[in-house]
Each structure stands twice: as C-alpha cells, then as structure tokens.
C-alpha cells in the first residue's frame, strides 16, 4: 500500500510536495465542513456567481494552507478578484469548490488546482503540476506532477485520515464510453450539435451532473469526452482557463488524452485576465480531434 507522503518523497519535486500535501490535508477539513455549511452568502465571485458559505470557507482554508507551505508566491482563486501573495516561487490558481450548485442536492463536488512556475495570468505551458479533489462517496485526490496521473483515496486511520494510492499511472481509455456537454442545447453552435448527435448515434452514454470535476472524472476513467462548448450567447463558454480548464488539461495530457478550445490545445492559451473563460473539449484524444475537425471544418 503506497501512502501519499511516501509517493511524494520518491516521485515529486521538493517544492511541489508540500503543496500537494497541503491540498490533501485541507480537503479533509472541507469534506468535514460540507454537511455543516449548506447556506448561501449575499456575496458574488468575480464572475458574478452567488457564493455559497462553503465556497468562501474552502477558499480561505485552501489559500491559507497553500501560503503556509512557504513554497507559494501567489494564490489566485475563482472566488477572489485579486491574488494573495506569499513568499515562495510557485503560483497556484484554484477553484476551491467546483460545482457549488450541487451542494443542496448532495451530488459530487470538487476542487481544482493548477501549479504554475510563472506569475499569473500565464500560458498553461507553465504548469508544473495540477490536482483535483472529488468529494463523492470517497474523498479522492488526483494529481500530476510530471510523472503521470495518480489517484489517492482518504482512509480513516484513528483520528487522522491517510491517503492511500487507489490508481497509479492513470490513462484515459482509448475506447470511449461516456460523454457530457454543458450549457443549454438550444445555445450550442451547430457543429457541437452535430458532434453530440454523432456520439449518441454510436451508442455512447450521456453522463452529466453539473460539476466539472465529477463529470470529467468519469471521462478520465471510462474514456470519452467532456465539453463545455462555445455557446451562441457565450462564445467563450463558462469554464475559466487558469482555475479549471488548464489544470484539467495538464492532467489530461499526462493521462495521454487531449484538451482543446475547439481549435487549439488548451495548454497553449494565454488568458489576458485571471477569470478569462474558454470553450472546453477534453478526453480521449481521437474524439477531441474529431470535435476539433467538426468545429473548425477541416
Ligand atoms: P457552480 O460552481 O456555479 O455550480 O458551477 C460549476 C461549473 O462551473 C462546472 O463545474 C460545471 O461543469 C458547469 O458549471 C455546469 O454548468 P451548467 O449548469 O451550465 O451545466
């Protein structure tokens, strides 16, 4: 049984290890807070979405634990207009609680982290690591730090949970089984509608719950494609480049998949602001390339 701390010592660069450890430890705190904190605040995040109490709590807890590692120069978050400064060299962009509209229905939630080596905002090629947490039936931490994708699961041992390796060197299956596309169907641009119809006609199963982490986690395990496309009324889609799209694109690349904005690799995008969004199509490489061909027309 491989324990997270052993894995980090053996395989992950010394500056990244404390960051991954801090994410793991704080995810346990957030998981405990979820049943106790189900209300909404009157506040809005920089994208104009109403914040849940636990959005604010998760943001504070993750930001302070990341800064306390001493490795982090700045933490930028979907829940804050400006980044918080620290004393290290890594730059972390996070969505501290992804899918907060699922709190009241008790559906899976997540947290997403991109660890960059450059000041934010910057191109995804500066990512040196990325991680996501799933708060589902299990509490899992999936991360990539240059050496493939690993998933660890929290197991209660006495008063302190321990993270044990659940799945090492994860690869997206080449035979696609599932797909999920966000946004109102009537707002999809025509090539997206055609592409999704073709997925349905070949017998792929629709899986969509409204939490990027939960929905994409299924694509990573079963093979397929997740899309939050360009919409007629929102040409840049909904997902934020720095906080959501690029970190998941980094994990996707390490799992031998592909992530695209419809014409370009998401990791090649340089957003001009912290909260810039992008259309997203990610998963099994051959399917993402098919989506790109339909969208670009060649
Ligand atoms: P919330 O955190 O506001 O619930 O948004 C979650 C999210 O950004 C992402 O996790 C989902 O993939 C997407 O929104 C779902 O959006 P739709 O409700 O438009 O399907």
Structural features, described:
By secondary structure, the chain is of the alpha+beta class. It is globular. It has an 8-stranded mixed beta sheet, with helices on both faces. Helix 2 (17-33) packs antiparallel against helix 3 and helix 4 (190-201) packs antiparallel against helix 7. It has helices at 4-11, 17-33, 53-68, 190-201, 212-222, 241-254, 285-296, and strands at residues 40-44, 50-52, 72-77, 84-85, 90-98, 109-116, 127-135, 139-144, 149-157, 160-167, 178-181, 205-206, 224-228, 258-260, 280-283. The longest helix is centred in the first third of the chain and has 17 residues, at 17-33. The structure holds 1,6-di-O-phosphono-alpha-D-fructofuranose. The site of 1,6-di-O-phosphono-alpha-D-fructofuranose (AFP) has 12 residues, from loops.
Helical fraction equals 25-40%
Taking the sheet with the most strands, its summary is:
8 strands, mixed
Low-confidence stretches: none
Total number of helices: 7
Radius of gyration: 18 Å
Bound molecules: 1,6-di-O-phosphono-alpha-D-fructofuranose
Categorize the overall geometry. globular
Q: Specify the structural class.
A: alpha+beta
H/E element string? Answer: HHEEHEEEEEEEEEHEHEHEEH
Spatial separation of the terminal alpha carbons: 48 Å
Assembly state of the chains shown: single chain
DSSP E strands, number: 15
Strand coverage percent: 25-35%
Mean pLDDT: 95
- Tell me the strand order in the biggest sheet: 4-3-5-6-7-8-9-10
């Amino acid at each position: 049984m491989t324990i997270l701390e052993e894995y980090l010592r053996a395989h992950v660069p010394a500056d990244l290890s404390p960051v991954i450890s801090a994410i793991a430890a704080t995810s346990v705190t957030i998981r405990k807070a979820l049943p106790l904190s189900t209300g909404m605040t009157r506040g809005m995040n920089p994208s104009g979405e109403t914040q849940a109490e636990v959005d604010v709590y998760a943001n504070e807890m993750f930001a302070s634990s990341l800064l306390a590692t001493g490795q982090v120069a700045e933490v930028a978050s979907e829940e804050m207009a400006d980044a918080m400064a620290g004393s290290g060299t890594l730059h972390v962009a996070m969505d501290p609680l992804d899918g907060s509209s699922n709190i009241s229905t008790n559906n899976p939630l997540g947290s997403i982290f991109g660890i960059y080596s450059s000041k934010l905002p910057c191109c995804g090629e500066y990512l040196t690591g990325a991680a996501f947490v799933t708060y589902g039936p299990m509490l899992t931490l999936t991360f990539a730090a240059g050496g493939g994708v690993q998933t660890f699961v929290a197991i209660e041992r006495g008063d302190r949970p321990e993270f044990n390796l659940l799945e090492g060197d994860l690869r997206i299956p080449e035979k696609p089984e599932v797909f999920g596309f966000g946004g109102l169907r009537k707002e999809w641009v025509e090539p997206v509608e055609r592409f999704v119809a073709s997925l349905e006609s070949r017998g792929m199963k629709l899986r969509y719950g409204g939490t990027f982490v939960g929905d994409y986690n299924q694509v990573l395990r079963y093979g397929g494609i997740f899309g939050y496309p360009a919409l007629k009324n929102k040409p840049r889609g909904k997902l934020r480049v720095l906080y959501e799209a690029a970190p998941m694109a980094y994990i996707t690349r390490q799992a031998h998949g592909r992530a695209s904005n419809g014409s370009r690799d998401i990791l090649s995008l340089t957003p001009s602001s912290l909260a810039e969004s992008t259309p997203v199509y990610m998963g099994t490489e051959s399917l993402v390339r098919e989506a790109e061909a339909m969208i670009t027309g060649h």
